[in-house]
Specification:
about 600 residues, alpha/beta, 5-stranded parallel β-sheet, 26 helices, 20 strands
């Protein structure tokens, strides 16, 4: 029996790893595993392309993991598969089956549904079908969750193979000890079941051998219990401090030692704030004390840890004004990133069960987003959505964390005041269609830089402070180009043998791909020496004499240096067609010019044109 395990991902990204499908494959006996194929599908593919890819494997059984983001399309694809191959055995599992099995069954397309953790149920189903048996299909097939040590590793079994420079999803435990009313994580199986540390160490060794670039740890709260979280961080610190790790944490369990261990890693931590209103959080079984939360987050700041927050609008009892207060609280703690979501009233959760009692009206199909509630009208939710989009564009993709407070000090606004003014300008003055503004994934970082520059020019003119605009734009451009350089190609020194037979003076040269030349109004190094740049202070202390800086990356470090006139003339003139002799054209002595050129070539700033 040939088994196909296709996964329709949210989007192409390093996180698009078919972990659930690989766990099913890893649970099969070796003989069945050899005849099981994983297939990655992306939403940009047409239905015809997906169907062709699936049918090309000549499967006998197709098993789909169903999630909120892919349920509708998978069900439609399954119906087309059924028409093309009526003999196919179609199976579905995953969170959508566990939460809403009756409605999935009502699609009348799947032969079998797998409920709960699917490894043992799926392996048993395949075994019975291979023997020619037909199991009862009237209810989802389920088994009791196996002990953690009995779970096969999708990585160590070879079901998944890490790729050099790629991303991996790393499961370090199952379950959730908490009972948040909006969340599905703890449904079905209460409590936490940590995977054996010996397995985790072996998997990490594999990731290291394969030179993976990023690891996403899938625990919804990696630091609970705190000692296990620290044990995991120590393991990462010993073996993989250079691999970037993404973790989700609960602020309640952060302490100085955890922050210190995180600070030794290349990592980013996402903290589930959800709301900064204690009365709202109590309704969903979460506790919150603002001062204690801020104190815990300050530990991350003190250790230099990159962190972000999650916020949800539309929670029961919350309103638009309350969401703005939560946003301002979050921005005041200087997160590197803010993920903001509308409430999803997911089937199987407490909020879904109590929706009528709470007056929550939500979509009945995925993604189950809130439509209105007694405290938040549809118009209020639209206002929240617009503010969330402004955060995503100006603050997140616009890399504004380092200079956002400096911008707020000029008008004396709150963060939400500023971002609403930005949104209003974008929709009216810049005439950006609302649908385009709301579609964060449609924007490129360079487009947002232009948007930010346009808004800041408008803002400082409106405030009658054009004298502060050059410093604001310098900070904006510095942080944009810093981030782009960090994400771009590394600039490495040139091997001496490559330069040995090169005539540097008469050879046309070009700028290396990872090198950026950026113009500033001020001497940019003066601004960077200020720990917390204040625009008023910059205008008072410095003159806008102008500077051009070169940006490049060495390893994880971004270098930014102001350029002297001759060095600038060389780098800006190397367009791949002209030689240094032509660029300098008698303005410098050849010996001095060659010295500059040889340095630029040796450091990798310049390359010989092809």
């Amino acid at each position: 029996m040939h088994i196909l395990l296709p996964t329709l991902h949210v989007r192409p990204s390093p996180q698009a790893v078919p972990l659930a499908a690989a766990c099913l494959k890893a649970a099969l006996p070796e003989e069945s595993r050899r005849h099981a194929t994983l297939l990655d599908l992306q939403p940009r593919q047409s239905d015809a392309e997906m169907l062709a890819a699936m049918l090309a494997t000549a499967p006998d059984l197709v098993a789909f993991p169903l999630y909120v983001w892919n349920r509708r399309r998978i069900c439609a694809l399954a119906k087309q598969l059924r028409q093309a191959r009526p003999d196919l055995i179609l199976v579905a599992g995953g969170p959508e089956v566990m939460a809403d099995s009756a409605r999935v069954r009502a699609e009348e397309v799947f032969d079998y549904l797998i409920g709960g953790e699917g490894e043992e149920s799926f392996a048993a189903l395949v075994a019975r079908l291979s023997r020619g048996e037909a199991p009862d299909a009237t209810a989802p097939l389920t088994t009791s969750p196996p002990p953690p040590e009995a779970l096969p590793s999708p990585w160590l079994s070879g079901a998944l193979t890490p790729t050099e420079g790629g991303g991996v999803l790393w499961e370090t435990s199952r379950g959730c000890p908490f009972a948040c009313a909006f969340c599905f994580d703890s449904r079905g199986t209460r409590g936490l079941r940590p995977l054996p540390m010996a397995r985790l160490e072996a998997e990490l060794d594999l990731f290291l051998r394969c030179r993976v670039g990023q690891i996403w740890i899938l625990d919804s709260t990696f630091n609970h219990p705190p000692e296990r979280g620290k044990e995991l961080l120590r393991l990462l610190g010993r073996k993989a401090p250079h691999i970037h790790v993404h973790l989700e944490a609960k602020a309640d369990f952060l302490d100085r030692e955890t922050a210190r261990l995180l600070g030794r890693l290349s990592c980013s931590v996402q903290v589930g704030l959800q709301s900064a209103r204690p009365e709202v959080l109590r309704r969903i079984h979460r506790t919150f004390e603002p001062r204690e939360f801020a104190r815990k987050i300050q530990l991350l700041n003190q250790s230099g840890v990159t962190f972000g927050f999650d916020l949800i609008y539309g929670l029961p009892g919350d309103d638009y004004a309350g969401f703005r207060r939560s946003l301002d609280f979050a921005l005041g703690l200087t997160p590197n990133h803010l993920d903001i979501f509308p409430l999803a009233v997911l089937p199987g959760t407490e909020l879904h069960r109590d929706a009528a009692e709470l007056g929550l009206r939500a979509q009945t199909e995925p993604p189950y987003e809130i439509l209105d509630s007694p405290s938040c009208t549809a118009a209020d939710l639209d206002a929240c959505r617009l503010l969330a989009a402004a955060v995503d564009l100006f603050y997140n993709t616009g890399r504004a964390v380092a200079f956002f407070s400096a911008l707020l000090r000029v008008p004396g606004w709150s963060g939400s005041d500023f971002l609403l003014d930005f949104a209003d300008w974008a929709l009216t003055v810049a005439a950006i269609p609302r649908a385009v503004f709301l579609d964060g994934e449609a924007w490129q970082a360079a487009d947002i830089l232009g948007l930010q520059e346009g808004y800041l020019s408008h803002l400082f003119k409106k405030l009658e402070r054009p004298d502060l605009l050059p410093a604001a734009l310098d900070l904006l451009r510095y942080h944009f180009h810093y981030a782009e350089t960090l994400l771009g190609p590394e600039t490495l020194p040139s091997p001496p043998e490559e330069l040995r037979n090169l005539d540097p003076w008469r050879t046309p040269l070009r700028l290396a791909g990872g090198v950026r030349l950026v113009h500033f109004s001020y001497e940019i190094l003066d601004l960077l020496e200020m720990e917390d740049p204040d625009l008023e202070e910059v205008a008072l202390l410095f003159r806008p004499v102008g500077s051009v800086a070169v940006f490049l990356r060495r390893g994880e470090q971004v270098l930014c240096e102001s350029l002297e006139e001759d060095f600038l003339k060389l780098l800006s003139g190397c367009d791949g067609h002209r030689s240094p002799e032509e660029i300098f054209a008698g303005t410098v002595i050849r010996a001095e010019g060659e010295e500059i050129v040889r340095f630029a070539l040796a450091e990798g700033f310049l390359l010989a044109a092809p």
